[in-house]
Write a structure and sequence with these properties.
alpha/beta, 6 strands, 219 residues, 8 helices, six-stranded parallel sheet
């Protein structure tokens, strides 16, 4: 039994279709937040389709590859109500790819790459599957953990701002966005449980906000 199933009733996500966007390394790694989110959602009745986020290649190539991956997943799923974008894993992948650069350039490349990859995935999900659908749709950004690295706090701030801005821009399409910000000590299962909660009917009450799991001690 997972942490999510201990908190939420069985079948609460029956019929919910989820697109889960993350780098291939995170999707394949046992024990990662990505694998925990997938397990929690499926255990509670959701159907989950993984979409590989591509950070390599130029910007146009990234957009084309992600757009096609999202289109394929939506076609297989027959639509979706929720997208979970693992921006924490995207940052880790971007930092790894930029490891040989000088510190200042590494920071610029890692942050820009994370925000760009998140935006590319968001735009593909919304334009391909959410704007034209009937009913509400949700997007969750899993941010990097607080204090999880030299670029994590800056990435968190950018992702929170993106969620707030897009929640206003896309409110007319009944699309809600939430940034889920774990602490360094937050377990993958806890993040997954909160993602499952946000995917449930209760999650419709949240939009344009950051759910900060760091607690008051971080302020």
């Amino acid at each position: 039994m997972s942490f999510a199933s201990e908190l939420l009733r069985a079948g609460v996500l029956d019929g919910v279709r989820v697109l889960h966007v993350a780098p291939a390394s995170a999707l394949a790694r046992e024990g990662s937040t990505a694998s925990a989110v997938r397990a929690a959602c499926t255990e509670l009745g959701a159907s989950v389709w993984s979409v590989e986020a591509h950070g390599d290649g130029d910007e146009a190539e990234q957009e084309q590859r992600v757009d096609q991956a999202v289109a394929d997943a939506l076609a297989s799923a027959g639509g979706a109500e929720l997208a979970v974008i693992d921006a924490g894993a995207l940052l880790a992948a971007a930092e790894s790819a930029a490891a040989e650069l000088e510190q200042h350039e590494r920071a610029r490349v890692a942050l820009a790459g994370t925000l760009q990859s998140t935006w590319v995935a968001t735009r593909a999900v919304v334009t391909r599957g959410f704007i034209e659908r009937e009913g509400a749709a949700r997007i969750i950004y899993i941010t990097p953990a607080a204090g999880g690295g030299e670029h994590s706090d800056a990435a968190r701030a950018g992702l929170e701002n993106l969620a707030r801005t897009l929640s206003i821009e896309w409110a007319r399409y009944a699309i809600t966005l939430v940034a889920l910000a774990p602490a360094a000590s937050t377990a993958a299962g806890e993040v997954a449980a909160l993602c499952a909660y946000l995917a449930s009917p209760a999650g419709a009450y949240f939009s344009g906000c950051e759910l900060d799991l760091s607690g008051p001690a971080a302020n």
